[in-house]
Amino acid sequence: MLALASLGHLLGAAVAAGLAMHLACRQALGGRHQAGLLSASVAAIALTGWLIRTGLPARWDDTRMLQLTGVTPFLIHSLWYLAPAAPLFLLWVAGLAWKARFERLAMLRVPAADLAILCAAALALLPTRLRWPGTEYPLYFIDWRLGLWYVLCLHALLAGRLPARFVGSVCAIAAVLFFGLLAVDNRSLGRIEQSFHEAVRKAPPRSRVVSGLKAVPEDLNPINHMLDRACIGHCFSYANYEPVTGQFRLRAKAGSTVNLDSLGAVSALHSGRYRIRAADVPIFAVSRRPGPGFALEIREVAVGETIRKEVLRLPLWPH
After folding, report:
1. H or E stretch at 311
2. What is the mean pLDDT of the chain?
């Protein structure tokens, strides 16, 4: 399972392997040395953070500490997602109060406590983004990815001995709110993606195509890869940032005719500052069609033209 997971993303597989190794060592050492093992593991995480700080370009954003509330992974598209996050936060608080009253230090002796503490230490001590040698773009969202593991371990720790009806009721309320919001937003996003598919089919096969749209918040941009998917089998998403980062198997060589070949050019196009060169044409841009409702159109772009980015604010409600 880890081998298959690593094909999707090495970070998730690495965290799972690390937590599994800790549990194996914990079981082998027995109860007398568990506190020492946990302390050594936290110290190793701190050392790793220090080595990264001294040896790699990295950044620690203060917002990573919000992950320790256990609710940030539920904040997908907008502040509306605070609605399902709130009852889950109350569950964490009630769980901590319950265990502090009836179990005291015994709650820290279960395996789930070790894993939750390790995840919390990683969130506090490891960077939110860093750049590996040989790449041109930072690895982002480290804290968001670790936050998913933290929530899983925290839930396993706190929900174990709480009244089942209470836990079930809170989780049911949160699930209804969360998946209801997802259904509404994904219905809207599905219409937008379908519009991308319809628009790019009007360009000649194997054309270079770029998008004139972006969504906010930009760090959780759900339309960022819609053009990439719409172009599969028909056109080239000319401003796809992945081939120029050096982080993926598919990479753009200098002078590429199917993808911009520098991170600076990709960044300029995504920010609406890139002027089309003679080497870029023919090239087409997808933009929002003027008028009521929501529809996309595609047009050919001339040399010297700047492709402006129209902002779509979330949640999106196209008609």
Report:
1. strand 310-313
2. 87
- 278 vs 222: which has the higher pLDDT: 278
Instruction: Give yes or no for a contact between 271 and 309, defined as CB atoms under 8 angstroms apart.
Output: yes
Looking at residue 185, its pLDDT comes to 86
What is the distance between the alpha carbons of residues 208 and 260, in angstroms, rounded to a whole number? 10
* Residues 99, 109 contacting (CB under 8 angstroms): no
Angle between helices 111-125 and 34-55 (to 10 degrees): 20
DSSP 29-85: H-GGGHHHHHHHHHHHHHHHHHHHHHHS-EE--GGGGGGGGS-GGG--SSGGGHHHH
Rounded to an integer, what distance in angstroms lies between the CA atom of residue 117 and that of residue 38?
8
Residue-wise DSSP of 153-197 = HHHHHHSSSS-HHHHHHHHHHHHHHHHHHHHHHHHHHHHHHHHHH
For a pLDDT cut of 90, what percent of the chain falls above it?
45
Nearest to 227 by CA among 279, 164, 298: 298
Closest CA to 180 of 65, 58, 312, 81: 81
Q: Phi first, then psi: what are they for 47, rounded to 5°?
A: -65, -40
The burial of 172, by beta-carbon neighbours within 10 Å (0-12 exposed, 13-18 middle, 19 or more buried), is given as exposed
Q: Which of 44, 151, 136, 30 is nearest to 89 (CA)?
A: 151
Diameter of the chain measured on Cα atoms = 73
Q: What is the pLDDT of residues 36-86, one digit of tens each?
A: 899 999 999 999 999 999 999 999 999 899 899 888 888 887 788 899 999
Q: Which residue type, as a one-letter code, is found at position 198?
A: E
Q: Which two tokens stand for residue 144?
A: 């968001």
248-270 confidence digits (pLDDT tens): 888 999 889 999 999 899 989 98
With both helix axes pointing from N to C terminus, report the angle between 142-158 and 111-125 in degrees, rounded to the nearest 10. 160
